[in-house]
Batch of 4 targets.
Target 1
Amino acid sequence: MPRLAPSSPLNGFRQEFDRLEITEITDLALVSIASPQGREAELASAVSGAYGIALPPVGSSVEADAGEPRFLGLQPGQCFALFERQDEGPVDIIARKLSDAGYYTDQSDSWAVLRVSGTRCREALERICPLDLHPQTFVTGAVARTVMEHLGVIIFRDGEDSFLLLSARSSAPSFLHAVVTSAKNIQ
Amino acid sequence: MIINHPLLGPRDASEFVYLGDASLIDRPDWQAKDAQQQFHDYLYLRDNPAGAHRELWFHEQGDRSWLVVTRDTITHEITNVELARDVALQRGRGR
Amino acid sequence: MSQTHRIDGGLLDRSRALRFTFNGTSLEGYAGDTLASALIANGVKLVGRSFKYHRPRGIFTAGSEEPNALVTLRRDGHGEPNTRATVTELFDGLVASSQNHRGPLRYDLMAVNDYLAPFLSAGFYYKTFMWPKAFWEKLYEPVIRSSAGLGRLSGKADPDIYDKGFLHCDILIIGAGPAGLCAALSAARSGARVILADEDFRFGGRLNTETMAVAGTSGADWAQQAVAELASMDNVRLMPRTTIYGAYDHGIYGALERRTDHLAESAGKPRQVLWRIYSKRAILCAGATERSIAFGNNDRPGIMLAGSVRAYANRWAALPGKRIAVFTNNDDGWRTASDLAAHGADIAAIVDTRDRAPLEAPAGATVAMGAYVTDTKGRHGLKSITLSNGTTIECDCLAVSGGWSPNVHLTCHQRDKPQWRDDIAGFVPGPDLPVGMRVAGAANGALTLAAALREGHEQAHAAAEELGFKPASIALPAAEDEAVETSAFFHVKADGPRAWIDLQNDVTAKDVKLSHQEGFRSVEHLKRYTTLGMATDQGKTANLLGLSVMAECNGRSIPETGTTIFRPPYTPVAIGALAGRSRGKAFRPTRLTTSHKSAEERDAVFVEAGQWLRAQWFPEKGETHWRESVDREAVRVRESVGICDVTTLGKIDIQGRDAAEFLNRVYSNGFAKLPVGKVRYGLMLREDGMVMDDGTTARLGENHFVMTTTTANAVSVFRHLEFCRQCLWPGLDVHLISATEQWAQFAVAGPHSRDLLRKVVDPEFDLSNEAFPFMACGEVTVFDGTPSRLFRISFSGELAYEIAVPARYGDAMIRALMDVGEEFGVVPYGTEALSVLRIEKGHPVANELCGQTTARDLGLERMVSKKKDCIGNTLSERSHLNREDGLALMGFAPVMRNEHLSAGAHFTSRDKPATTENDEGWMTSVAYSPTLGHSIGLGFIARGRDRVGEIVQAADPLRGKTIEVRIVSPHFVDPEGERQRA
């Protein structure tokens, strides 16, 4: 038998609108890192040793050097490492760097990832996102988990006019419909 | 309603799930002599105040924190929001 | 027909003529018109029929308070009944028709109701149609419903689309009149994020309808300048055509923005957007609404509010009459007379209830002081009025002013009680405003222009300061404080013809008196008995009149009589807007498994399981009945091998030094000693001792477990575990994260399952029974290196595995499994066969774990450890839950083999009638067992375990069927579990 071929939740969706673009991001690896209770300092020092950064507080993110993960603070004691997918298993990559300082769970296949970008992206997101995305309130690098059209979504601002949206893989078509409808409705 | 999350700031109540009285943190000791009575009271006896009420909310569509929210049941005014974990630790809960 | 009543001036674009039709007649107006102003310009007086009496009615107001001029706009599915012509922006091609009449509007056959008025007074339903009782539903109600009412729905699906959204601001300003514009300028210049919303398509409010100057220019021009400045600031969002319809908790406001209502076609864009606005502060600048005066026959077409008559002339260059009389209790009515006179209208008379004339009357007008109107004439349009001094004055329009009521509606949405102010004879906002709300201008009782501008500025200044902004110093635009003295004269106390109070619900002064006479004297009773203020306009022009009549009956003042308060929405919101996009398939999200596409290709029939779509069965060629497919699938699993997608089960990744201890406390059975590489069935109780959920949990490492939950409880179990972790045992080192979406998981079940998996799992992994026995688990690789998790667990009772691959490989995996399984005759099986197999095996699911059953009821009492603390342990020991005659989960088989059991049937002894008193339990699950060749069931029955072999009745009154069943073991197939261990 040949090896199994991977498929992305939205088959690499991409569509352009007026000053707005919706693109599926398919090459990301995501690993959740939980810090062991009472040994938070060990994880912190492992992270700073390996990546030269401090773990971000909930709601913000921090990026290590180019090619290294970006860490998203999602909940107390837990963050996501976001990095480009490689041949090696995502958990193995993190564990190789941080040893057993944290608890790691592969989340790479749990999410469909959309990038919504362009100068009209906030206008489109207003239709589904309850959070205030004003650039002074939700700054570049900010991250939050919220709900859009009944679906849990992690929203991460990776630029002035660019957001990454992560929503559950199984409901990805419904989520895409929600985002695309927003784009169409503002045009 | 808006719940002013201690870590995240104001968030819409629609991101949260309501449980009930914050006294649910005070789970009795199973080995107490009158454990059954204590568990009965813990589970079924609730105050129903017209006024300030400490209650548990779960930020399900958010950071997954359980919160203790002090809310006026008449006006919906929220005067305090704490991480339930901190409250539990203060109330002597541990392992 | 030409625009016979069009005059010069106004805020219209005369270069853009717009054609429209009303009741089939083609008419013309201009850009800037409303439907109402265009109808007036064309001399149309009669626009509808009243709710109950089918009285001819005309346009009464120039705003959203309109009670009369309700029309149906557009056609077919696009049709929108009960639209107020006064706020309908005219567009080219608009089609409108009048409502609530049979036959032509002018000759409504239902007008006979007007002659039946003596029988149709307040409460007439309750009095008249009491007997005979059976007539109510069949005769009276349908007749009443068809004769009374508003417009009709098309009955077709609305082809337009609607949307919703979320907005955030520091300061929300509601209303863009003088106070609102001043507030917006002030707030915006301080740097605050401002939203300015107004229901009108043109900002300015009364500035557009009055002739008073602001800062040395016309009010309308000043408004345009203010809007231009605001539009240039990027911290300001201007929202015309937007109604703030509700004030909710903590500064949240509901807003309805009409995006394309003013266009002929929506062009695929949302027609309306329902916004949720989060504000830190809000300033209500909603202005005031003029009220009427109740007098005989005061509802004829041509009788209008004075400020509205003035508005039509000033803003829309449309004169509602050629010869106009004014009836007023206040100074403002006089300004209508002078403005109209300036437009060249013939002012027939000024009738003022007060004794002293405040201003000079236009030349030629009869002035009657201390007088009032007692009656009017003109069936389809006003012809003359009769005064209290006996004179009759011919006129085709009567402008009535009963003074102005502050628009306090939104201040009441959190139960604030408005307070009476004698000087303006009206209610102003009370002390308990919604959090963060301030009120400025006429809404606050500041009825003069200069005061409105000043209050708008002051309130915005204060709000900005509270939020930490540095308010800019601003020169208030110069304006005058015009004369606004008023008196509290609201109804003519005479036994003349009927005097209308609530035009939309056809409530007259007599109805209010009747209500008093019959004991409904509190304002809340008055409202409900007479329906006063309960129409779609919420009595905006009527409530105070009703209160004044009731106050007079009570012999008390209006403030002593009290007032009702308002609820959202301020003006009606279409259901379509409330639904937004949540229509059809978009009503809720759909979740698909990774094998969905492959199942579709196999023509699977799908079933909704919560949000999931799961394959229910896979029909093969020639199968005509679902049972054929399901039986085949179940038999193939028992005889060979089948594959079922079980991804929908909740999967929770649990890690931490205390993970084992944590599981030991949330499951009723022991988990502390589960070895690495093993799976255990776990039973989860609620604290009250009832079963909450069940599933298997695998130990992947010393500190690493993966728990499965039922599909339905995946979310609630996760929530419960987080509660336990954070609130009960915050000192444990345990961490949870959902892994449901991460893994595509397939059950591979049947005697050939191991053979199949040997072709899937890479050869270095030993799958022999010795190396990988029942309840083993481990991380393996499949198809040359794809990481995978393998669990040897069985829901069907057969030799079975569940194999999980990262979801990205799910689609490839199911196809590969089917390919390599071909030599064993593998079948995909759906939820129906899954159900058959588990019922044959006696495994409980949600039907049995219904929230009312205990471990003991399920025969699992040995799974509740008495040696440890766990959720639900203590209360599960309550004596009542452990009665000797308690329920037990048993199997049931029909005595006559060919009979079919039905789920939901209740059990009674054979010798007793099937009544509630004799109820002994119920059937939870049934299936046809292809293995046994007859119908089988699971169910709960009292003392079941002592009654094996007994025959009882299973009564199913819903399906009208009672059959005899034998109580048997719930394990129909392989009760010793030898197959799954093979």
Target 2
Amino acid sequence: MSDPIIKCEGVYKIFGENAKKMLHESSGNVDAKTFQDNGCIVGVNNASFEVSKGEMLVVMGLSGSGKSTLLRCISRLTDATSGKIFIEGQDLLQLNNKELIDLRRNKMGMVFQSFALLPHKTVVENIAFPLQIKGIKTEDSISKAMEMVKLVGLDGRENYFPRELSGGQQQRVGIARSLAVEPDIWFLDEPFSALDPLIRKEMQDEFLRLQGKLQKTIMFITHDFDEALKLADRIAIMKDGIIEQLDTPANIVLNPATEYVRKFTEEVPREKVLLIEDVMDVITKENLSDLKVSKDEIIENVAEKILTQEKTVSVVDENNQIVGSINPSKIINTVFGGRKNNN
Amino acid sequence: MEFIKKYPKLFQWLFLLIVFFALCFAIDVPETYNFIRGQAEFIKDPNQSSYVLFGKEVRYYAFDVFWRLPPLLGWLPIWINDSLFFLMNEWMPMEFWNEDTQEFKTRPLVLQITRNLTSFMTFLIELIREFLLGGLNTIVAFSSWDWIDANPWAELPGLPWTIVAAGATILAYKLSGKGLALFAALVMIYISIFGQWKPSMQTLSFILVAAPLSFIFGLGLGIAAFKSKRVEKALYPILLVMQTMPQYAVLVPAIVLFGVGDHAAVIITMVVAVPPMILLTLLGLRGISPEVIEAGKMSGCSNWQLMSKVLIPTARRDILIGVNQVIMVCFSMAVISAFIGAKGLGFNLLLALNQLNIGLALEAGLCISLIAILLDKMSLAWANKQIDYFGNLTFFQRHKNIFFFVVAIILGIVFAYTGSFYFKEGFNYLFEIPHNKGISTADFWNKGVDWIFDTFFVYIKAFNTWLIVDVLQPMRALYLRMPAVATLVLVVGAGYIIGGIRSALIVCGLTLFIALSPWWDRALVTTYMATFGVVISCIIGFTVGTLCFQNKNSASFMLGVCDIFQTFPSFVYLIPVMMLFGITDTSVLIAVIVYATIPATRYTIEGLRSVPAALHDAATMSGVTKFQRLFKIEFPLAFPHMMLGLNQTIVFALFMVIIGAFIGTEDLGQYILKALSDKNGAGIGLTLGLCVAFIGLIFDNLIRTWVDQRKKHLGLS
């Protein structure tokens, strides 16, 4: 793996007047309850992780779990109480105001749950806003903004005001604005939570299309587990400020680290998450069918093919080398069986 | 007992009222008591008592302590006067360079500061005034009289009225389009041909200095208060008092500090206009969603960019209301500051009212109101202006407004020049139509007033007599009959029931201040007039508001009417009532009612509008009739907002009662007006102003506390 773009080491965020002192006294062993009794609220509790280039990390948790606070620490909208955060190797907390502004102008983009568009500016002005802040000439910024308008499919509505757009359209503007400066790092704070389910799905697909094209390094916050599974390269599950587990979707479903994570994954349709690779058995020679499936396929996509076979099916890698086998019964077992105790 | 348990508050109120009335009946009116028409300290009377504090003797009529408290604060005005005198004449004498005499001169610091401030204001006003009307002071300020004598060409005249009118029209067109341009043109032409050009331009130059300065200071202080809790805490009490302080009262100390004239008027206008601007800026900035601020930060805004490009534009709605308020206050001060020698329409208006020339007053008042509306609309359009990035405009289209203006200047000069040949004798009407040489409808109006008087005199007089004898006099007598202790118990008790011990203490302090001042009786009269006005205003306002709310169009129409009426300077309201009712208390009260009905109506409509639509639907689905919905759903929910309207109504009513002193009332306002022409009036004026402000604040505190609790209870906050 290349160098991490975002790296957190023991990040704490505690709200309250004597947060620093209490944190110092607790020597890293933060118990939310004792802090709360002393008038402090724990937002983020000892978060350490890395995000590498082009990766999408989805931070998942219920409201109040500290996921938004974590994101605001990393974008330094709030200052972390303690810990270290590195953005492309730069120590974020050591930056002075000017360097921070520079970083935001060139490297970061952020999308907000409530869209946070400027009500007095039109679509194109909103999108051009970060560019104009940077000091780019009005003409250039507007033409660049028009490109972004096309990218998110809002052509023809560039002179509308935010109040004249639907929620989905407003969030497209939010996305376009965050992308206008061509940032390397993209923060999305529950961008689709305020949208209707149908629009949400449409926006998720749109988002995946954009990410396929742009390959940004992404931190994506959501409280919707299905959304996390659909989008993530890796998922971090947070509870009470603590990252309970940070892993690939498959591993989270197959090996939940804590009881809390297990409860979350219970109802997840496995066939939509797991790959053949995750459930295949060792190579076998007996009773093989002619069908071969790739190890990188999601179970759902090939289940029908496999289930029509009576014999065991070979699993191959990208070079068409057989790396394992899978029996139809295993598929049935994965999809329908053992939700409660299996794995 | 069940009943009492169910409504504990009701029981408390009943108990309070019983105590109040018991006190009223238990304490007899002292035989020596009568309403004092003069100020005690100016009357030599062997029956008076006196005490000495700070070496000053305070004389007063002593009564039973339960009936009237002794004026222990009687020394306050004297002390304020002495302090002001000390500050202006003795404190911190310093050497300053005097340009005129070319030598160092010793002057007290405060005097020097105020003199510098006033000369700066004078410079600004003259600068604009000399553009519009001509004059030499500004040029002289940069050169000298000798230079002017040597270069007579520099004695430029002002702009011909045609150019100013064309400029205003083009500006209005650029800002908003044809509608406003037409309005601007009509206003300008009206002003000119009715011979009000000179005073209008004098007033305009005053406004063009006072309004922007107030806006800048208000915005700046509002931002400072938004950024720092400490600044906010320091400003808050001043803002509160200034909100309910009558504008008259501020004039008096201003004369001492800044002298008499336009410059003093500008400074006073700022003192009055800045507080609402601060409050509204703060309100707007507070209301911005945190995500918008974060979005601004993530776009890489510096602090300055965040403030100027994100925060202020996002809070634009409230800031615009602030601008509207500033303009409103500036125009109403433009009239009131005529008392301290400001020139312009206000001066003419006062003069006309003094001469009972209603027609002339009407014309001047109309001019002020029209300019006020025009400026208000222009500032609104300016703030809402949008830029078109995609229009493919030619050079001419881009600069057509400048082009038209240049053409207007040339044409205007040509007209004025030819005019100077055409109107050889007398006045050049194409340059400037002199005051009272234009068309005047004054005679028509005066005749109208006479006709109304002749025709309806009997009815008006009958109504007047009935109102005064059967309603006002008894009401006034009742108010004066209240022993001071009973009033205190009533007010403090109300404070305790509504807001607990904290409210009770605040209200008690405010009431004690008035009770211990020498003007308790006067304050009671002010309160009685305000109460009468407020009650009638609320009845009218709530009824009209509720009726208009039934239909969307009529509601919007009514709000628009309120907007326009609110733009009228408060003094203008006195004109029509004086036309009808002459110089009586009735006139004042009717002006109060008209003026105070505006906020009552506005808040009723807005309150009813703020009821969530989902509740409407829920109520409809429960099968309510229109009346049930109004009384069971809309009124209870809108009531807190309507109570804020009541608060505004009280403030408006108090203002108008005090202004009514101009017509002649026997309340606090009368003394404030007297203090204006008194050498030692500053202390009296300021203390009286505080008394009026505190009456307002007592109600303000009670109502606000109640509304906050009610809103919390209803889950609306």
Target 3
Amino acid sequence: MTDLTTLGIAAIRDGVRDGQFKAREVAEAFNAKVAAADQLNAFLVKTPDHALAAADAADAARAAGETLKPLAGVPIGMKDLFATKGVATTAASKILEGFVPPYESTVSQNLWNAGAGMLGKLNLDQFAMGSSNETSAFGNVISPWRRPNDTAPLAPGGSSGGSSTAVSAGLAPGATGTDTGGSIRQPAAFTGISGIKPTYGRCSRWGTIAFASSLDQAGPMARDVRDCAIMLEAMAGFDAKDATSLKLDVPNWEAALSVDLKGKKVGVPKEYRVDGMPAEIEALWQQGIVWLRDAGAEIVEVSLPHTKYALPAYYIIAPAEASSNLARYDGVRYGLRDLPEGAGLQDMYAATRAAGFGDEVKRRILIGTYVLSAGFYDAYYTQAQKVRTLIARDFERAFEQCDVLLTPTAPSAAFALGEKQADPLAMYLNDVFTVPASLAGLPAMSVPGGLDKDGLPLGLQIIGKPLDEQGVLNASLAIEQRAGFTARPQAWW
Amino acid sequence: MSVDTATVKKIASLARIAITEEDATRLAPELGNILGWIEQLGEVDTQGVEPMTAVIPNQLRLREDVVNDGGIRDLLMQNAPQAEHGFFTVPKVIE
């Protein structure tokens, strides 16, 4: 009998529906994988019973002859940024240690409504702030990938590093991620899996622990493009509880998947050719052009002149919003309280936040507080929001000439843990290709393209017009088919 | 851009994060470095450009003016570090 954990979401769904295997067998197989992978530190909480209960419900529904739900029998991993009722939710921060939400986030509820079960809560960069998963208060996530003849632990990317590790190591067929400046796409690229950030407003932010509200979007991470389409259909949808939720029907993305790109134009932005980019990434980008041309697309060079200002604008806007959002952690209503002997209320706030937040979170709150402070607001924050308008306008103009854009996902393959930790700026530069689409709220996807000389995965990014997830998925699928990427990490854990 | 330790302490106080003298000394060059890098935004000509308010055009919705939530006091209190008689409790505040 085949190892059920080698199957993706579509194969599990179809197999359960067709009676090839029981949903319970699938859940048991993945639960066992999760239990045996503690070395990777991908899971903060394991919830095998949740996965089994959903599986039993799927098996019972099938036995009763009911039509199965879209994700019936599919167990997934849940990034620990989504509030899950009755299951500890911490955003990988000490300040939320022990917090058990009495409510369920809309995205996770949507997945349960679709029949999915939960294997556990996935580790991440603290409050989703980081690109390597080294800012978690509960230890680094270790990528299942390694360089040849080298046991040095590699970064799984961030902030959705537990999600990328769980999927690439075969611990879950799919996982939720959230993306503020690249937190789905960069970890997907680092681990050889697929991940899509939909248009801002497609997935409700209600019950998702906030980092930067004008940028945060949930999305799926899975083994291939089809699996991402299936999962995104379940996650997305209008929600009255989120003021920025888009009141639109969720398209049937999976049914409309097509690799025929005839008549489509793919833009290649010349500003994404950055200094010091490894030759292998440039070569993969060129290969991507060849693949999309082969799929029938016409390639056009486009210009996004304000690209170089996207990252500095992001590092004003995101910390500014974070400093405001994270003001709620005050030691009064939930989470950690640090009350030094004889301290008053203000001292309690300061002590609690000093003890509860990690260094990177503090750094970003301080930057955000600074750029929003009296006398600096216009020079930093207002200017950044104006630059953001220009960046969005660049994309609008480019999309007058093309349907989607093709770029690399990240400027390098996975780096070793510790390699970039000493220099926050070097770490921030990891998001150089993913941040612009975030600032413009555009759908964007990373799909594996190949391996570098060390055998580590490299990703290509497709960016689409607002609400054109279909165009993004289709171009990504065309790459996926031609890349034939099947590499998986050898289990060492 | 250089940031001195006095500035770091002032920002930290605004952000309600207690920091030590050593923290301030370590953070000053770090924040200076980051703020220096983001200052390149100043060179972008933004004359006549409106600051972004919404990335995707969206209509603000109105809802019925009715109570649609509430009556869950105990549920809300269950994660409180300290609560008594249905209230969140904090240290004595004397101004």
Target 4
Amino acid sequence: MAISFPSTDYFEALKAQMAANEEKFRRLGFIDTTFGVTVGVNGKARNFILEFEVFDLKNVSEVPAIDLKKVDFQIEGDSQVWREMIENIRRNGEADSAHDINTLAHFGERLKIVYDDPDGHDKLYRFMESIQEFFDLSSKLEVSF
Amino acid sequence: MAFYADKDYTVDQTVLEAAQKVMQGHLGLHWYEAKTERIKGRPSDPRRGLTYQDLDVGSYGYTNIPEDVRKSQSMVSRGSEKVGKLPDMGYVVNRKSDVWSDNVAELYEEDKTRRWVPATDIRWNELHARPIAPELEMACAQLYTFLQECQMVSMDFPSKWVALINQDFLEQKSWMCAQMLDASRLFEVFRKRALYGGAGLGRASVTAEQGLKEWLWADQFPQGSVSINLSLAGFLLVLYRQVAAFAPTKVDRAIMRYAMQDAGRQTAYGLGQLRYHLKHRPLEVSAMEGYLDHTEHVLLGLIGSPELLEPMIIICGGGLEKANVDKGRIATAKFIRLVVREYMERIAAAGLAGHAGRSRIPAMIDRISAAG
């Protein structure tokens, strides 16, 4: 059954996939960061907070708004961009060069990284391999938009 | 010899007789009475294992290291009992606020778990399975030549200082050793990538090397750390992200994604160290401002180096045709502005909020990137 994006179900499904692929994430190392994901849908935003700890996604929640002081960074973008990324991952098994988080967010033109403290921003890059592999697990999901 | 032990132990009868006595089974067990704390180190999270954070307890911990370390000048491990004539190691960095950052134990533990291996984690054979145009390969060879120069300095900086820092800062010194390994690994991967591609190495950059030497030879650790761990690492972090976004091959993208992880830890320390330094030594604010005023021109030596800019333009544009170069110039101009924006953000977040307003760099950058 297809999982709707954006939703907590989608991130919970990725969390389950992350646990099922524990060895891969152990190999990538500790991931200790809490970040926000904001998806713009018809002029409104849906906001999710993902709390990663040690090797796992510990908790996912949907919130009305994200307080940047309580997260390391926030990845925000229109639902069309997120959809393009997820569909690209589904097609290729992983994001290609044009559709990984780094490329989409690099100049802030498609996805945007916002943060209160540059130290939090740096965590996106400290844990980039794990974060990208996490989103690449979308290849194992049936996702509807 | 710069130092002689207080005795030649081959002619010291006391040492010989004591060792013989022990080997005959007469154990003295004086070390049983060491006046040290008895604790049991336990992991707070079994998945993470036993970390330095778990051992931040009592006399063994780092939280209670005083600002001025006066009583530890030997190589004794923090928390041990000190007896007898221990040697003075001549440490020249003995103030916590000169080296410490609150994230140092975390970065050290993280560094080890996130290690990677250029020889086996990079799928090198993809480079000849899908060769790229000769002009792109030449650009890659030049870029990776430049990056090796930067990594050599990233390796030299902690190497130059680690033996001069008081042993009580053992987590920080361990982190510096991890930094050396990170830099040597990046040096290795950049060299291997350049030499795998067939174009050989490119040309050294005079402006970059002159500037990097100025940063490397900063007189004081906090100043050098700002230059290497914050300014250079921040510049490289944006550069790695840029090359990953425009990577001509999957191999280059993989290399840059690993590199950004290593650079991200370095900037986290650079920011954390400057923040800690200024928080505990507010009178140093103007000295640090003065240091930056004098030395941040090096950022221009790096950014303005033709040995960097030209290969970047070719890589970001995808070739040497006019349309490619035009596209590459636009992307490279954005890269330059991003480097400076993030540099100023980190400096401000660390406690030098007004620095961007007095710095000469933004105006110079506007002149360079306007041409893009």
